[in-house]
From TrEMBL:
This is Transcriptional regulator. Residues 16-114 form the HTH hxlR-type domain. Gene3D superfamilies: Winged helix-like DNA-binding domain superfamily/Winged helix DNA-binding domain. It comes from the Bacteria. PROSITE patterns: HTH_HXLR. The lineage of its organism: Bacteria, Bacillati, Actinomycetota, Actinomycetes, Micrococcales. InterPro entries: HTH_HxlR, WH-like_DNA-bd_sf, WH_DNA-bd_sf. It holds the Pfam family HxlR. GO terms for molecular function: DNA binding. Keywords: DNA-binding, Transcription, Transcription regulation.
Length: 132
């Protein structure tokens, strides 16, 4: 890809509301939660076990953000004791195709990206005198 000249018709412009939503829906924990909920509904404790690196506080905040954005719904089950289950919404399911496109792009270009990272790191090491 050598074309870096700006084109009027396809300007890469992410407005503040778009950036905010991308940050809220496609962050590390949101993607992990969506990955789990795409398979089946889950209770909070099941999500914690499925995503062991997430803290209780981060998982709670993530679920609330996703619920606020209409991506996940919180369902109170009529059991005793009362239980809560999280489910992906119809709107949340529409995220699958664009995320799959990004994952396919990563699959195709990850070797090139890893090569670029290696070259960058080596150049940085040389600049710092560590590569000599």
């Amino acid at each position: 890809m050598t074309d870096t000249a700006p084109h009027r018709g396809d300007r890469f412009d992410i407005a503040a509301p778009h950036r905010e939503l991308l940050d809220q829906v496609l962050d590390k924990w949101s993607l992990a939660v969506l990955n789990e909920l795409c398979e089946r509904p889950a209770r909070f404790s099941e999500l914690r076990r499925a995503i062991p690196a997430v803290t209780q506080k981060s998982l709670t905040a993530t679920l609330r953000r996703l619920e606020r954005n209409g991506i996940v719904e919180r369902v109170v089950l009529g059991t005793r004791p009362v239980a809560v289950e999280y489910r992906i919404t119809a709107l949340g399911k529409t995220l699958r195709p664009p995320v799959d496109i990004i994952l396919n792009w990563i699959e195709a270009y990850l070797p090139s990206i890893e090569d670029a990272r290696r070259r960058f790191d080596e150049a940085m090491d040389d600049e710092d005198g560590f590569g000599r």
